[in-house]
Fold this sequence. Notes:
- Helix content is 34%, strand content 13%.
- The protein is of the alpha/beta class.
- It has two domains: 11-69 and 356-460, Aspartate Aminotransferase, domain 1 (Alpha-Beta Complex); 87-351, Aspartate Aminotransferase, domain 2, CATH 3.40.640.
- It has a seven-stranded mixed sheet, sandwiched between helices.
- Strand 7, helix 9 (235-244) and strand 8 (248-252) form a beta-alpha-beta unit.
- The chain binds pyridoxal-5'-phosphate.
- Pyridoxal-5'-phosphate binds at residues 138-140, 167, 169-170, 223, 227, 252, 254, 275, 288.
Amino acid sequence: MAQFKYGSSTPSEVLSDLAAKNNVSVLDKDFQVFLDANDDLANLRDDFLIPKKATSPGVECNDKDQNESCVYFCGNSLGLQPKSAQQDTKKVLQNWELNSIECHKVGYLPAIDCDNHARDGMAKIVGCHRDEVVIMNGLTVNLHLLMVSFYQPTQSRHKILIEEHAFPSDYYVVRSQIQQRGFDPDTSMLLLKPRKGEEIFRMKDVLEVIEKEGDSIALVMLPGVQYFTGQVFDMETITCTAHAKGCYVGFDLAHAVGNIELDLHDWDVDFACWCTYKYLNSGPGNLGGAFVHKKFDDTKLPKFLGWWGHRESTRFEMSNDLDFASGVESYRLSNPPPLLVACVLASLKVFDKTSIRKLREKSFLLTGYFEFLLKHYFSKQLGSTKPSVEILTPTNFNERGCQLSLRFSCSLLEVSSKLKKQGMIFDTRQPNVMRVSPVPLYNTFHDVYQFIQALRKALSS
Ligand SMILES: Cc1ncc(COP(=O)(O)O)c(C=O)c1O
């Protein structure tokens, strides 16, 4: 892999250096103007519909703000709408209108193989071959389908390793899969815990658990990026260590895909699943993505079957002959929905104008700038009663994506409500964390600056 542009410097060092070379301070208003003016990816924002203060629920908006945009830092939850999504879905509807049943085969995005159109773009984003990836179903459904294959418990090897406080759906998937196979979740679910008093997992500890418990672990099922803290897991090393102990390895990439660089094939990951509505901007509840490594193409893994997993060449013979496609294609159960695929493609078209590497380089500065200003204005001062902000997410750039998870010394509810009124959009997670994600695809340095000003106002009033 090519050397990362900023080498081993920290975002704070690079930003301070850049500011000094331009005779400003990182804190100056002029600096965000400079950063936006020198952002090679700035024009990608034009491909998205940015929510306006006038139409966003809960935002206080006077006449002069009517045309102002909100600061949208919620791409970790729901990406923004690509401008072309509406016209592309309209084209699908028109194809159905004009060609009726033939819309399966002709016109814009023929239904019969519409999902295949997303495979090249998706493969580029997750670092795999085209025939290792499909889009289908939702994330939770895909986790279940793939665990039918990759969770094969025996009396001596029946555990699934998952992190403590995993996203609830993942937790339920794991528990119910264990139960379905006749094992007891209380003994077969192995919870990975951070050290006492810590929230970030130390990779050394993660590997140690796999080394120590690996002989009884059937499946390691961890996140690429942890949803609550924004921590990146070292997927390559985890995979290698778990394989050496004979475990299968799968990742939930909901918060990693479109956010950090992924190399699923070369890392030798067995399977992975993700949703496409966060950093991949495909719209609420849209189809999920699934990866199965090519090395399983000729392996007969147990799986649930449906007609869409059949080879395309024999699918319509309707013969009940089990002529299933190889690899991940065989997991497709139902025919794909072109209306949804059109939205996935609208976003992939934008990703195709750049690369995850370039987005990461912008993210280095963008989230770095956010972190710098947060630390400057809101770090806890000894002996002070002023409200302060703690950043839970790791400082090391390699251990985080664009999200920062924040914890306040004062009421989260009050701060959130004051920020929302000013047009700041982010999300909160129980019990006490605000997740804020400057997304390099469509956010600006000016957005970060505005958020910090809004937070200063919220915390001083
Ligand atoms: C980490 C993680 N896992 C699972 C899910 C559930 O996704 P879905 O509702 O698409 O199945 C989410 C949704 O936000 C998530 O963030």
